[in-house]
Amino acid sequence: MALISLEDLEGLDEDEQLDNDAADNSEPMGDERSDRLLAHWREVASTHQVAVPTEMMGPIHEMTSNNQQREPVPFVLISRQEKMGEVLWEERAYPAGKWACVRQAEELYEQSISKSFMKLMRFICKENSAGRHLGLTVPVVSTVLLTADGKTLDKNVVTGFYLPGDFQDAPLRPHDPDVDIAQRDAVTVVARPFFGTTNEETVTGHAGILRELLGAAASAQLRSDVFMVAVYENPGVPRRRNEIWFLRR
C-alpha cells in the first residue's frame, strides 16, 4: 500500500517479513500470524499515541493481501531541479478529480493523519456501497493549514485518497459519514521528496528546507497558508518515501 500516516518502526524485520509473506500468500492467515500482524500495526500506531482497535484486523488483512494494487495519482511533470543526481524538487500539474477525504483535529498532527487513514482504509477495504476492495492509489495526501503566524499547524488536517480511475465517474458511497467524497480542483505543486517518519516535527522541518531551497522570489509565487504531505508506502517500511507539496497561487 502506499501510504500511511502511521509512523514506521525500525528493527521489526520479522514483522516486515510477515507483511511481505501475507501479500505473497493467497491462503487465509492463521490466528498466530494474524495476531502478529495486528500487534505490529499496534506497535507502529503507539508511536503516534494512537490505538488500533481489533475491528481494524479485517481492513489490515485486505490491505496487506492487496499490497500490489497501487494506482498512481495522474500528473504531468512540468519541470525538475536536480543537483549532483539528487532531485531537489519537481513542479507537477495534477488534474481535477474525486477524492475520499477525512477531516480530523487531534492534539498532534500524527494522531490526526493516523486516525483519518484508518477510516479511509475501512472505506477502501469493503466498507462501501459495493462491499468490495477498491484498490489503493498513491500517494495519500494530507492537507496542512497554517495558523496566522505562518509557522504553527492548524489542528484540522484533511487526509485524502484519490479514487481509482474505475470509480472517478461513479464513486462508491462510504459507510462512515466521516468519509466525504469531494471533487477537487486541478492544482500545480512544487514537490520535494524526503524519507522516514511523518510527524509534526519532520513535516514542518522538511517544509522549511524546501522554502529555503526555493528562495524568497520563488516562494512568493506559492501559497504560504497551506502545504501538503504525500505518503507513498506503508507503515512497516523503514525510510518510507514521502513528499512535501507547495501549491502554486
**Total strands:** 11
**How many domain modules?**
1
Give a quick account of the main beta sheet: strands, pairing sense, barrel closure. Answer: 9 strands, antiparallel
Strand adjacency order, main sheet: 2-3-9-11-10-6-7-4-8
Number of helices: 5
User: Are there runs of 5+ residues with pLDDT below 50, and where?
Assistant: 1-26
The backbone outline, from C-alpha atoms, is: globular
The chain-level mean pLDDT equals 86
> Architecture in CATH?
Alpha-Beta Barrel
CATH topology, anyone? Multidrug-efflux Transporter 1 Regulator Bmrr, Chain A
Question: Mind telling me the CATH superfamily name?
Answer: Regulatory factor, effector binding domain
Q: Give the SSE order as H and E letters.
A: HHHEEEEHEEEEEHEE
Class by alpha and beta content: alpha+beta
Instruction: State the helicity in percent bands.
Output: 25-40%
| Radius of gyration, whole Å | 18 Å
CATH domain class: Alpha Beta
Beta-strand percentage range: 25-35%
Cα(first) to Cα(last) distance is 31 Å
